[in-house]
Design a protein that fits this description.
The chain is built from 7 helices and 14 strands. It has 308 residues and is of the alpha+beta class. It has 2 domains: 56 residues, no CATH class; 216 residues, Thrombin, subunit H, CATH 2.40.10.120. The strands form 3 sheets. The chain has a 6-stranded antiparallel barrel with strand order 1-2-3-6-5-4.
């Protein structure tokens, strides 16, 4: 039997825009005109492809694998605590645990902390009307519906604060989960994972998904950097300033250490156009873990360093 989630996937796509919290403000009128023109072109393309996707969904009353229990969990060798992963192993782990979150009018990223529980930013999902979103990625066998279970309270515009949401997937289980690390230090190497809209626009698999191919999975974007500072510890939660590349759509994605442990959740960025510089910011894993625990979900935490 068809569920409303599959009908909604076709409806969601025409109105997708990228989560704004990671968007730097354009500094010149020409930049504004260019951005508006690019957004109009992108929306027209999405509308056309979404109509084709809707037709494909309507012709298939039971998408392949919808009633399946989900993929068999990935079995990986157990590494000693705090042991850095090889590059290939780290890529596989992040690909198998990170998802694209479609939550009109926003898109963002998220990651699994249990086989059916996803963490993302509140601002990615707070505007959905019925509390349902769609998640896509190698972590799940096909696009799945997810329900918003909890969100941190909104904060006044321009002020810092918690920005978390907990999602529960329907009809599937993740191939991989990520643990949360409660400690992070300046100059520590980090990796940002997510689905920035800037790269999705050039992703042929994302275009195939819009054209009705439910097996098409967009490529995860990964970038490396270092922790530049751990700020605001005295405000009850720490903010990690880092040099890994993030942009629109990265919101809600994990910032991990080389061990593949989540040290923070990417949430916003700042740009200085005059100096041609920018910095990404993630809310630290320690407060994220506390928020999750306050909502009744207990997770094992990693508090040791990630060292060779």
């Amino acid at each position: 039997m068809r569920t409303t989630a599959w009908r909604r996937l076709a409806v969601l796509l025409p109105v997708l825009t990228v989560a704004a919290a990671c968007d730097p403000a354009p500094s010149e009128p020409a930049d504004v005109a260019r951005l508006l023109h690019e957004r109009e072109d992108r929306n027209r393309a999405l509308e056309q492809r979404a109509a084709e996707l809707k037709a494909a969904l309507d012709s298939d009353p039971c998408p392949p694998g919808r009633d399946a229990a989900g993929p068999v969990p990935v079995q990986e060798a157990t590494l000693p605590p705090g042991k850095p992963l090889a590059r290939e192993a780290l890529v596989r782990r992040l690909e198998a645990a990170t998802v694209l979150v479609l939550a009109p009018p926003m898109t963002g990223s998220g990651f699994f902390v249990t086989p059916d529980t996803i963490i993302t930013n509140r601002h990615v999902v707070e505007k959905v009307e019925d509390g349902d979103v769609i998640v896509i990625g190698k972590a799940v066998p096909q696009p799945l519906r997810a329900q918003v279970l909890a969100m941190s309270p909104p904060t006044p515009e321009g002020s810092a604060g918690r920005d978390y949401a907990i999602l529960r997937v329907d009809g599937g289980r993740a191939a991989q989960t990520l643990s949360i690390a409660t400690a992070v230090t300046p100059l520590e190497e980090v990796v940002a994972a997510g689905f920035p809209g800037l790269l999705l626009s050039n992703d042929s698999r994302f275009q195939a998904l819009l054209n009705g191919d439910l097996a098409a999975i967009p490529d995860l974007a990964l970038s490396r950097g270092e922790v530049m500072a751990v700020q605001n510890r005295d405000h009850g939660f720490a903010t990690i300033a880092h040099s890994a590349q993030i942009s629109s759509g990265s919101s809600g994605g994990p910032l991990t250490d080389r061990c593949g442990r989540v040290v923070g959740i990417n949430t916003f960025m700042t740009v200085d156009a005059k100096e041609s510089s920018k910095a990404g910011f993630a809310l630290a894993g320690a407060d994220l873990a506390a928020f999750i625990a306050e909502r009744g979900l207990r997770l094992p935490l990693a508090d040791g360093p990630c060292r060779d």
